[in-house]
Write a structure and sequence with these properties.
about 240 residues, 6 strands, 6-stranded mixed β-sheet, alpha+beta, single chain, Thrombin, subunit H
Length: about 240
Amino acid sequence: MVIVDWSRSSRRLSLTFEQAEALAAFHAAAGEQNGFMVPLDVELDLYSTLTVELVLEGNTRLSFEVEVAQAFDRPDGGWNTAFIASSLPRLPDATDEPDDETEVRGTAPVFRIQKMNPNEKSRLATRATRAERQVLLRETSPMVLQSLLLNPRLEAKEVLRIVKSTHANAGLLKRIGEDGRWGKNLEILASIAKNPKSPPPLAIRLMERLRTSDLRVMAKMSSGLRDDVRRAALREYLKRSGRRG
């Protein structure tokens, strides 16, 4: 078991271990992955630096600097935070690595996934856990994003991130727009219609299903939207001008 204690004033993260073997296992895994992940109650700024202390029985065994790599929100309101430790110093009198590294606390999807090639990431995407999906959603490869759509556990807020991604292409947006799972989510539909990469026929077809407030915004957009799509939004908005959005 490890106790996580974050001090905002000193920007110091203390990880206290009950057993030397657990501390050594954590250190070994963090060194191999050039980083680790722990749960925090606060969201830290990305790319900010702080000091980490590895503590055993009240005594600090090791201190080193890390950088915040990513933070994933948890259902309980906290944040699973991944840190990069590019030059992890040697742990004094560290014990050997454990036989089963899959049980080492601190193993983070971000460090494992960054070593994969696009094909491996695509295969993982179809069955990825929530933590793994949050890493894969940052991918620039449309192939990986397409594969995420095959994941039965994909959530609406994750689809919205895909739709708003600058890496989403026309085929990907069309697939989401025609998928019955997301057809009732007005925020997703509006984001598809607003995306300049969406096929115009698809964006125009969606107008009748959008909220009046979304149509009003699109009708006034001077850039970032094709003229034919903007005109379609204006026509639909004028048709509803006597109704509340």
